[in-house]
Each structure stands twice: as structure tokens, then as C-alpha cells.
Amino acid sequence: MSKFNTPRARFGLQFSLIARQWRRVMQTHLSSIGLTDTTWVPLVHLSECDGITLKALALRVGVDSSSLVRVIDALEREGLVARKRDAADGRAKQILLTRAGQRRVKAIRTELSRFEETLMVDLSDDEVETMTSALERLQLKLDDYENNNNPESSS
């Protein structure tokens, strides 16, 4: 086996391709029930850390704050999110899920679970737990790398 054909050497490319395909297939599935990547992702993140600033939400979602403003405006018009003044910083506003937003997230999570169950039917719970644990450790390494090697983070 050549040094470029080992599991470690293939991991990055394989992971990247699978992640893109997973997201593409998931998005196609969710769009069939009227959910777009642009709107459901911020809602799910808000359900995990409700009451955060636009900037913090943009970091979690992985988009620029300026592009997220329009999405939040649309979600607010739909009654799924609300903005309130941040008690710690009166200039900032926190974004919160409304009850309607919480119901929408519950429906999204139900659909995501169905989708994931279909794709992972041949994987045991132990295999899924092992992969999840490894990915969490990898994410910590990536966060550490990004925080220590990103020129923007040191300014």
C-alpha cells in the first residue's frame, strides 16, 4: 500500500466529498418539504443556543453576518424569530426563537432524523457513536488550529 493510499491519507478527501454529498442529498430532501438550507440551518442553531447575537449566530452557521441579516429579517416576518435588546449590551440585539420557531425546529429535527435513519440504517449504534466521537475530537482540533493560525483571529 502506497503512503498515499492509506486510510489516513484518504480521510480528508473522502470526508470532504461525503460531507458535500450528504448536505446536497439532505438539502434536496428537505427542499421537497419546503425547507431551504438558508432558513432551516439558522433555526436549528438558534434552538441550541437561543438568545445570541447575529454575529455569534453567523459564526455558528458559517456565513457572513451581512448575508444573515436578510435571512433573519425573513424569519422574523414569518414569526419564527424575534429580536430583543441585549441586557448586557444595549446596542446589541439577541435573536430568539418564537413558539412558532420552536415548533418549526421540532418539525425540522423530525425530518432530519428520518433522513439520517434512512442513510444510517446499516450502521450500528456503536459505529455511529465511534464516528461521532472521532468527529467531535477532530472538530476540537480544527477549532484550535483555526483559533491559533487564523490571521483574522489575532487582530
Automatic annotation (TrEMBL):
Keywords in alphabetical order: DNA-binding, Transcription, Transcription regulation
Question: Which chain regions cross the lipid bilayer?
Answer: none
An example GO BP is: response to stress
The segment(s) forming the HTH marR-type domain are: 8-140
Q: Which InterPro entries match?
A: HTH_MarR-typ, MarR/SlyA-like, Tscrpt_reg_MarR-type_CS, WH-like_DNA-bd_sf, WH_DNA-bd_sf
Q: Which Gene3D superfamilies match?
A: Winged helix-like DNA-binding domain superfamily/Winged helix DNA-binding domain
SUPFAM superfamilies linked to this entry: Winged helix' DNA-binding domain
The GO terms this record gives for MF are: DNA binding; DNA-binding transcription factor activity
**Does the keyword field hold Transcription regulation?**
yes
Which Pfam families does UniProt cross-reference here? MarR (PF01047)
What the entry lists under PANTHER family is as follows: TRANSCRIPTIONAL REGULATOR SLYA (PTHR33164:SF64), TRANSCRIPTIONAL REGULATOR, MARR FAMILY (PTHR33164)
The protein's name in its UniProt record: MarR family transcriptional regulator
